[in-house]
Design a protein that fits this description.
mainly alpha
């Protein structure tokens, strides 16, 4: 296999489907049999383990916490509206 053939094969390989910070597509080749490159989660062992409990470290993004913040926001909006009606 020549160097030209090896480079040509890499240029035609499927690309990673992730987006960069700039909003453009990642230009790295996808890992064989996957849709992402090694940097965006295509490598073996990447990603969270099954039954991941790390997401509950602070509880800030649990469903109950989000609903409580939304309810508080609704209450504050209603209070501001009531205050504006008295002015």
């Amino acid at each position: 296999m020549t160097e030209k053939t090896r480079v040509s094969g890499m240029l035609h390989s499927p690309r990673c489907g992730a987006r960069t910070r700039g909003g453009g597509p990642c230009r790295c080749p996808a890992v064989a049999g996957k849709r992402r490159c090694r940097m965006h989660g295509g490598s073996a062992g990447s990603g969270a383990p099954k039954g991941n409990r790390n997401a509950l470290k602070s509880g800030h993004y649990t469903k109950a916490a989000i609903e409580a913040r939304q309810a508080l926001g609704n209450l504050l909006r209603a209070a501001r509206k009531t205050i504006e009606e008295f002015r």
